[in-house]
Write a structure and sequence with these properties.
single chain; alpha+beta; 5-stranded antiparallel beta sheet; two-stranded antiparallel ribbon; 3 helices; 7 strands; globular; binds zinc ion
């Protein structure tokens, strides 16, 4: 199990760096991230959330296999957008409706160093966009209006003192 960093840690606000060689250590990191996500439990986890500033994330929605995305690029998004309630393992207990494209296309490498392209919709598209944001230092709160985002941030810090 890896430690998951939470809101307030600067690492969540930094940009992750491109992964050079997809070697055994990266495959091991991916495996540990998958285990950490499953045990949390959560449906997605990005490397910065475990304090590693590398462009990679993992996700697994119900009924699907665990998926690993290394050096991902979202290469297309649908015009259609929808609202869905999101949460984040780095901001436990806080949830909010976020507007995002319904469908995306993403290009990435897997943990064996193989490139792939994936077209995703529904919950998978949602999780991928949320995790992809983490690589830019962006949190789901940033998609809300400032007032709402500040209120939820306050609510989160208050919950820590309770
Ligand atoms: Zn998150």
């Amino acid at each position: 199990m890896l430690d998951i960093v939470t809101l307030g840690d600067e690492v969540l606000r930094q940009k992750a760096a491109v992964v050079g060689d997809i070697d055994g250590s990266i495959a091991k990191l991916a495996e540990n991230m998958i285990r950490t996500m499953q045990e949390a439990p959560g449906i997605g986890l990005a490397a910065p959330q475990v304090g590693v500033l590398k462009r990679m994330f993992v996700c697994q929605i119900e009924g699907d296999k665990p998926r690993v995305f290394i050096n991902p690029e979202i290469i297309g998004t649908s015009e259609e957008r929808g609202v869905f309630e999101e949460g984040c393992l780095s901001i436990p207990g806080i949830y909010a409706d976020v507007l995002r494209p319904d469908e995306i296309s993403i290009q990435a490498w897997n943990e064996r160093g193989r490139p792939f392209t994936l077209n995703a919709g529904g919950l998978l598209a949602r999780v991928i966009q949320h995790e992809y944001d983490h690589l830019q230092g962006v949190l789901f709160l940033d998609h809300l209006n400032q007032k709402k985002s500040e209120r939820l941030e306050k609510q989160y810090y208050k919950s820590l003192r309770a």
